[in-house]
User: What shape does this take?
Amino acid sequence: MKKLVLLCTLLLGTIAFPQEDRYPKFMAEQLNSMDTAKSVESLQIISNNFERVALAEKSKWQPYYYASLCNILSSMTDNENQRKDSYLDKAELQLSLADSLLVHNSEIYTLKGLLAQARMLVNPMQRYMKYSPEATRNFEQAKQLDTTNPRPYYLIGQSTLYTPEQFGGGKAKALPILLKAKALYDNFVPKSPLDPIWGKKQLDAVLEQIQGKANESVK
Assistant: This one.
């Protein structure tokens, strides 16, 4: 009986925690799932999968990074305001673990900026003064750490787009930043196959919307 329990434990451990040679394949599968996830439930399953990988692959920063990103996206997707901060609390912890494994990384600082934006979106009126400057600081740090990273420009541009003109936002201010992001995306080469590449499709959709409306106004 003890042997049977031990065997089951070993088999379950193999399924739950991919070994080194399975790590890239399993990560790629989760990234593909994340790319098509449309619900909080799906994002939470994927986040948990990334976290399981992180616990097995203790020297890898990417699993914690993507687990954090899934929780940030969960907060932005969930319609229930009272749940949003709980996702972000998990995301902050996971991101701090990624940061401890790879310090001074542009992608991690970009995600810190997105996390601050997500905190602000829970209650913009009360949180703007705290989290808007925090997001800006992290995005600026991300730009300094890697001048080829398009993601901080994309997120700054998107934030600028939805900021009222009287507060320094609007399409005219956002468009040059978004075009800078597009130029960087067009030439961006990730340092490894599992490094972040997200944002280009979303940026293209935003630019199409802005430039399409601009063309309509000219007509």
